[in-house]
Amino acid sequence: MAYYISPRFLDRLAVHITKNYLDLPQVKLPLILGIHGRKGEGKTFQCELVFERMGVEVVHVSGGELESPDAGDPARLLRLRYREAAELVRVRGKMAVLMINDLDAGAGRFDALTQYTVNTQLVNNTLMNIADNPTNVQLPGSYDETPLQRIPIVVTGNDLATLYAPLIRDGRMEKFYWEPDRNDRIGIVGGIFEPDGLSQQDIVTLVDTFPDQAIDFFGALRSRIYDEQIRDFIHSVGVDQVARQVVNTKTPPTFHKPDFSIQHLLEVGHDMVREQGRVRDMQLVREYNQALRQGSPEPAPSPSAQSFYRAYEGVASGNGSQQTPSQHRASSTRLDQDTLNQVRQLLNQGYRIGLEHVDERRFRMNSWKSCATLQTDNSDEAAMAMEQCLLDHPQEYVRMIGIDPQKKQRVLEQIIQRPR
After folding, report:
1. CA 136 to CA 149: how far, in whole Å?
2. How far apart are the first and last CA of the chain?
3. Strands 96-101 and 57-62
4. Comparing C-alpha atoms, which of 99, 146, 169, 159 is closest to residue 369?
5. Using one digit for the tens of pLDDT, what is the confidence trace for 83-119?
6. Which terminus of the chain is more exposed, N or C, with fewer CB under 10 A?
7. Long-range interactions of 193-201: CB distance < 8 A, separation 24+
8. What is the spatial distance between Cα 126 and Cα 167, in angstroms, rounded to a whole number?
């Protein structure tokens, strides 16, 4: 395929790699380039395309390798891979980089419940040490006085703010926020569908129809088009004969070119968007808890909650009757009745209530900030604290989380406010 490389991405990555191989007098160069942005926007794939175009050797580390049952193993792995990249430069005479994918997933802290281990601490410390001394990276238990080749490090992640702050300071890490603009999206999607004969106008229509979808949506869309032919193949040979036809066979099945008309692509794309909506809206945990809380009695308000409601009580027009706390709560609260019932159910089961908030940009990256963990088992006091959080963040998403204090696990995540 004629894959598209964004000029902005190529420029930023090529400059970072090249300058780390140059001897610039009295210039302090950040060794690490942190590429961050929304999930599925092709950060890693764009890096691979740039590496291939520049002829750069790549040594990979996954964020999943940054934790181990044995303390110190991930830190040693980072040093070993860095030295491996330096050896590639020496032996092959080509540029090399150390690529760490999803660093925030392996070493970041997303909320107060994220476990901070010895390995997390050592990984952060090791990366800082390598950034400060890139030509003197030693393995534990040995020392080699020969200076190493300086190797630029490229890391990807969704939210670099979850990492240890001294690691991402400007002297150690250069930051690049990757958000493809419309021209980038048209170029990338055009590269994805290049073998399929779509016109430039079809590509523009496809991109403009799904402007909020990440780049990987269009790759999944192209894959989905082949499902129809695969389904016909399964029906033609029989489900019980599929394995015989596709495994250890000298004549693998062949398929004709599917229907890549723009109308068919839009139809399948809208079906995928509907599936995304079902994942967001179903919230089966919430449904299960609704079933569990049926018939649970409403606890009486505490004295502090009674005084809070009393301050807002008034005389109803027409009959001169005074509102009760429950009547006022139903008429003035920012929380709907389902949310209040959910709060009571969680507290009755011995769980704690937590709150998180996030703005529009970080919501797309699923990077929430902790608002508070409510240290109360009274639903009215919890409701007042939740009201205050909503008032403090009126133009942000706010979600309620249920926390099992014994297992330190979440049992519920539910958005209770969306920006207007």
Report:
1. 9
2. 42
3. parallel
4. 159
5. 999 999 999 999 999 999 999 988 888 766 666 788 8
6. C
7. 193/218, 193/222, 193/260, 194/1, 194/2, 195/1, 196/222, 196/257, 196/260, 197/260, 198/260, 198/262
8. 10
